[in-house]
Structure to design on (243 residues):
């Protein structure tokens, strides 16, 4: 699959993986619509690219998403990677933070998909890319809110694929491990195979060009999580030194 000349709506583009992915897609000739909350960051990023427009929005605010969608024009694809993360155990449940993670990581995706999927279905063409997480495969200690919201996003991808896999609409779940960003800087534990945003963006682009529905990376860490659903629970928790 060639991204050159195609228009992608990249939601969550202002920093981290989103910024790195935008720059790499632009270098390959993609036309980009860049969205996030920070208009200043989006404008600075768009200025580095030959063909990009910005559409500031708040994914948790449906009217904001609807207004942005009306301004983007025809699309060939949408990439949802807006995300919010606070490490949290059940013992220190923060209702506001949990709700914010679910609002950004999952409900925000529904707002975006509601503005894009019908058009893709109507023309029988399009590319839907959902950026999940290895944390979405199975429950992890200290992942209240984040793991559940990413699991919901990944389940949505599975359902979209089940409905659309024999159509002209391509659906992909791409699930990264730890990426060095301001969000993962909150973690106080060792993060195996920690990637830079640029390294993660290379993985994402390779996955987008493949025919795979689901990609988990980096290897072998991704393999561990992909197989997590088949691992006895006691062993799974022991891997994380929690029993």
């Amino acid at each position: 699959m060639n991204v050159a000349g195609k228009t992608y709506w990249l939601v969550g583009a202002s920093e981290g993986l989103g910024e790195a992915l935008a720059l790499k897609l632009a270098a390959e000739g993609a036309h980009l619509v860049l969205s996030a909350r920070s208009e200043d960051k989006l404008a600075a990023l768009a200025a580095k690219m030959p063909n990009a427009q910005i559409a500031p929005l708040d994914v948790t605010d449906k009217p904001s998403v609807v207004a942005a969608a009306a301004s983007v024009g025809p699309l060939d694809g949408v990439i949802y990677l807006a995300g919010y993360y606070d490490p949290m155990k059940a013992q220190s449940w923060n209702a506001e933070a949990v709700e914010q993670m679910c609002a950004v990581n999952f409900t925000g995706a529904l707002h975006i998909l509601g503005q894009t999927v019908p058009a893709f279905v109507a023309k029988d063409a399009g590319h839907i890319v959902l950026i999940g997480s290895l944390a979405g495969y199975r429950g992890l200690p200290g992942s209240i809110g984040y793991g559940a919201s990413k699991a919901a996003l990944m389940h949505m991808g599975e359902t979209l694929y089940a409905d659309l896999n024999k159509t002209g609409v391509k659906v992909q779940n791409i699930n990264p491990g730890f990426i060095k960003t301001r969000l993962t800087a909150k973690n106080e534990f060792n993060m195996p195979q920690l990637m830079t945003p640029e390294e993660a963006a290379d993985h994402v682009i390779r996955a987008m060009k493949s025919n795979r529905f689901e990609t988990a990376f980096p290897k072998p860490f991704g393999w561990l999580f992909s197989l997590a659903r088949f691992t006895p629970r006691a062993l799974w928790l022991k891997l994380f030194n929690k029993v």
The mean pLDDT is 90. The radius of gyration is 17 Å. DSSP finds eight helices and seven strands in the chain.
